[in-house]
């Protein structure tokens, strides 16, 4: 992300206006969002938390790339805060007839959409929209290429903090296709801001990132070394849709044998280590199915936290909007 894009996130008063990346978001605001999100959690089987803090506001969900969790949770989060939510079906929208992205945005602006939630496979689309919308509108990045997925980074941070808030003495191992992962990037940004003790990025060499993209992290290609005494293990899928050339990428059986998170490989981590996965999961490739469903897995907790964190972000953006 360019420095001006980091600055673009804040309004003239220094308040968060757009959420494009976790880079440039300080620990104080991260913790504030996490604590706000905790207040939106309710026990299973009870009524979901609700407020009217966004009543009268309209949120547009613009997903130009597939999504289950992020899109559904932004939709629920907006409705539970009393907003009107418009889910634009891109496959049946006029973008298929050649309408430019800005013409689509200006059309939604004219319909009084206040918050645009954007997912796109290309770099920089959320920032491009943020630069071109009216002053009262906010843009939230819901997943950008292999660059950034800030609300995923926040929900991952929230889930880790629920297990252990001693970030300085913690080892987190993220295992999988780090090179093409926006999830790893946003988790890394959030964890570094919180002063993480050790962040290990574990992958076969063909899927390893360049070190300059992850300052402060240790890049490892051996799973046993990467998982040794880790407090948190996060498995990632291989992002085949972003890989042009699969040369050197292990096949399924070889990958699972060498990099799969299983009951057997998890024995390298601490006995109370938690297992995370942002989804969608490929069982039997990056994670053993029974482990994903077992007591050490916090994968469904991540999903629950995803709604709460998006409520916290929308609530914060709405409050800041009211001060402009
Ligand atoms: N983790 C995540 O972004 O999942 P979706 O692609 O289903 O939104």
Give me the secondary-structure topology.
Blueprint lengths: L2 H6 L18 H13 L18 E6 L5 H12 L3 E5 L12 H10 L4 E6 L4 H8 L5 E7 L5 H14 L7 E5 L6 H12 L4 E5 L15 E3 L2 H5 L4 E4 L16 H8 L14 E3 L12 H4 L6 H25 L1
Helix pairs in contact: 2-6, 2-11, 3-11, 6-7, 6-11
The structure holds phosphoric acid mono(formamide)ester (CP).
Give a written overview of the molecule:
This protein has 324 residues and is of the alpha/beta class. The protein has two domains: 3-147 and 303-321, 3-Layer(aba) Sandwich (Rossmann fold), CATH 3.40.50; 150-300, 3-Layer(aba) Sandwich (Rossmann fold). It has eleven helices and nine strands. The chain has helices at 3-8, 27-39, 69-80, 101-110, 125-132, 150-163, 182-193, 223-227, 252-259, 289-292, 299-323, and strands spanning 58-63, 84-88, 115-120, 138-144, 171-175, 198-202, 218-220, 232-235, 274-276. A five-stranded parallel beta sheet has the order 7-6-5-8-9. It has a four-stranded parallel beta sheet with strand order 2-1-3-4, with helices on both faces. The radius of gyration is 19 Å and the shape is globular. The two termini are 26 Å apart. The structure holds phosphoric acid mono(formamide)ester.
